[in-house]
Amino acid sequence: MKNIILKLALTSLSTGIILFGCQSASSKKDAAINPTMSSGEEMNVLQQANAEILTADRKVFKNMAEVKIKSNDSGISELKNKLMVSDIDIHSPLALKIILLEQKNDEMKIRKQAYEQSLNDWELFKKQYNSDLDGIGASLKSLSSGSTQ
């Protein structure tokens, strides 16, 4: 009886050692790369890297938005100059559209500054903001091509 219990205990112990001692290839690779980093430290490193990526993404977005806004401003100025040169009434539909686009472009500046302070849903804001800016740019192009005819 002692012999059976001893064999069962040794079998259980060796099975446990084999099962828990084996590592997958990926965990062996991870352990070889950074053997001293715990899972908590890994999580902190990943969170820090994610924060750095988000910060870089926001900087790139801010720079691109400023370029688009300045481009829109220059397009609006060109259209205003064309209106002045061509003596078109300031209450004409074209002039009113230009004023409307100028207001929208100014709203985009305010919206960007307001978002920088709130920092809510980034991806949604970025998508909508870019869409709105592209819409203003497209409207300016259509107005400038239509006013030269």
Oligomer description: single chain
- Our count of domains comes out at 2
Biggest beta-sheet profile? none
Unreliable stretches, pLDDT < 50, 5 or more residues? Answer: none
Class from helix and strand fractions? mainly alpha
- The helix content is over 70%
The overall pLDDT average reads 79
Number of helices: 5
Using only CA atoms, what is the Rg?
32 Å
How many E strands?
0
How far apart the termini lie comes to 105 Å
How would you describe the shape? rod-shaped
Return the string of H and E elements.
Answer: HHHHH
Strand content: under 5%
Write the layout of secondary structure elements.
Elements (H helix, E strand, L loop, with lengths): L1 H20 L3 H9 L5 H48 L6 H26 L3 H26 L2
Helix pairs in contact: 3-4, 3-5, 4-5
Characterize the structure shown.
This protein has 149 residues and is mainly alpha-helical. It has 5 helices and no strands. It has helices at 2-21, 25-33, 39-86, 93-118, 122-147. Helix 3 packs antiparallel against helix 4 (93-118) and helix 4 packs antiparallel against helix 5. It is rod-shaped. The mean pLDDT is 79.
